[in-house]
Design brief:
By secondary structure, the protein is mainly alpha-helical. The protein is built from six helices and no strands. Helices cover 84% and strands 0% of the residues. The radius of gyration is 16 Å and the shape is elongated. Bound molecules: fe (ii) ion (2 copies).
Length: 157
Amino acid sequence: MATAKTKDILALIEAEHRQIEQLLAEAENAKNTQLYNYFNQIYKALNLHTGAEELVFYPAMQEYEETKKYILEAEEEHEETKALLEELKVLKPNDSEFKTKMSDLKKAVQHHVKEEESEIFSAVQKCMNQEQLIQLGQEFQEAKAKLEEDVEVAMTT
Ligand SMILES: [Fe+2]
Ligand SMILES: [Fe+2]
């Protein structure tokens, strides 16, 4: 049954990239409490997104030579993003370092997103058919739902 929940994984990932980019752009013009609220949203969105990719998307890429070769670098880029998020979490939005790290985060995300949507997506499209991509889309949504609670807890601790 084709519902909103059965979108293919590439469409889901792409939509989330646009949401995250939007939040990062809006955060650039925000300060104090508003900036912290944006950071909260970015923290959750990025951790859910990278977490679900690691649970569903990258393991599926492991199955084909053509896609497998991109995993290591992508995972390293996720680690870089997560480290920046944790560093930002303990800073106050009006610390001077906060802005610098937010701009590092934005650059890291832009680079990674570009790589996923160009090389990685085209390799995936060569190896997996639409049926597989829809199945993975469903698993991606389920993984996010499962991760939600952990990410909420991580944000506040
Ligand atoms: Fe992504
Ligand atoms: Fe990613």
